[in-house]
């Protein structure tokens, strides 16, 4: 039986590597390579991210899902192809990611399994207890609007926790205690704002009121802060308390993600003809480039 499972995993890996799935529009064409959606492993040893190379024949750094250590060395390719939005399991043994549907891959043997079957799913986030995955999808909405759903990490017990007909609810991220989910909402025709709600979709609280694009919110590992991307023309990274107070600017960039010690942020930022990953020390504002 284990041999059959291994063969099926290899076959699924081949399918993912060879197919072409489109994602929402990429940044403008002046970028030859793009590193996005970094996610810090809970033990701090690895950072996962998705890489895009405009050169389809690039054999040195092809498009795919990667991990790299926080010093920018020991880069490893996990899967070739257009995969997106990685997030780690709490024990660091698996990465969940988006490839049309939501999948996960084991780090030790590269075993892959499909988790959702809703047609299109985005922005998976693993719960702190490892039992659930939140994501957004237009599944079962009469207008195709994205809403937030939760599924068991084994791929069953699919639950809709959004209120439909109220705009799109997207980009969920769990609080460290597993009680709440931070996310964005497009209300009417205004720009998206950041909200929190409990894991049943109730008791929502709006945190931002700035009428610019607020995206990619993430909790700090201690649950005290939330970081996010804000801005219309130039992306900026901002930090606030988890209740929405004390909002302040950190640096230029987008797709921020906390380090497990809550002292650093990894994020994406354009540099010359690339979008690369950077790490910033929150207290000193010291920045180092992680990928090249």
CATH class: Mainly Beta
Proportion in helices:
under 10%
Number of strands: 24
- The global form is globular
Question: Which class of secondary structure composition applies to the elements?
Answer: mainly beta
Architecture per CATH nomenclature, i.e. the level-2 architecture:
6 Propeller
Provide a descriptive summary of the structure in words.
There is one protein chain. The chain is mainly beta. It has one domain (about 1-290): 6 Propeller (Neuraminidase), CATH 2.120.10.30. About 40% of the residues are buried. Strands 1, 2, 3, 4, 21, 22, 23 and 24 form an 8-stranded mixed beta sheet that branches. The chain has one helix spanning about 1-20, and strands spanning about 35-40, 45-55, 65-70, 75-80, 85-90, 95-100, 100-105, 110-115, 120-125, 130-135, 145-150, 160, 170-175, 180-185, 195-200, 205, 215-220, 225-230, 235-240, 250, 255-260, 265-270, 275-280, 285-290. It is globular, with a radius of gyration of 18 Å.
């Amino acid at each position: 039986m284990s041999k059959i499972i291994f063969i099926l995993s290899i076959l699924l890996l081949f399918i993912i590597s060879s197919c072409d799935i489109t994602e929402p529009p990429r940044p403008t064409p002046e970028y030859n390579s793009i590193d996005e959606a970094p996610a810090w492993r809970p033990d701090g040893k690895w950072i996962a991210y998705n890489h895009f190379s405009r050169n389809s024949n690039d054999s040195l750094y092809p498009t795919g899902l990667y991990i790299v250590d926080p010093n920018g060395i020991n880069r490893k390719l996990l899967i070739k192809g257009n995969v997106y939005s990685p997030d780690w399991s709490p024990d660091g043994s698996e990465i969940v990611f988006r490839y049309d549907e939501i999948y996960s891959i084991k780090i030790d043997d590269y075993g892959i399994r499909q988790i959702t079957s809703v047609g299109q799913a985005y922005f998976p986030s693993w719960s702190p207890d490892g039992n659930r995955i939140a994501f957004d999808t237009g599944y079962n909405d009469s207008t195709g609007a994205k809403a937030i759903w939760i599924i068991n990490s084994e791929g069953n017990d699919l639950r809709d926790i959004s209120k439909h007909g109220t705009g799109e609810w997207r980009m969920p991220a769990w609080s460290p205690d597993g009680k709440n989910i931070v996310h964005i909402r497009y209300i009417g025709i205004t720009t998206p704002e950041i909200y929190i709600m409990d894991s049943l979709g109730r008791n929502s609280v709006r945190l931002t009121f700035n009428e610019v694009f607020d995206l990619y919110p993430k909790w700090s590992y201690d649950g005290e802060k939330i970081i996010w991307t804000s801005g219309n023309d130039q992306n900026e990274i901002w930090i606030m308390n988890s209740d929405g107070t004390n909002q302040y600017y950190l640096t230029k960039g987008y797709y921020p993600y906390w380090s497990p010690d809550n002292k650093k942020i990894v994020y994406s930022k354009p540099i010359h003809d690339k979008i690369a990953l950077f790490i910033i020390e929150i207290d000193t504002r010291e920045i180092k480039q992680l990928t090249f």
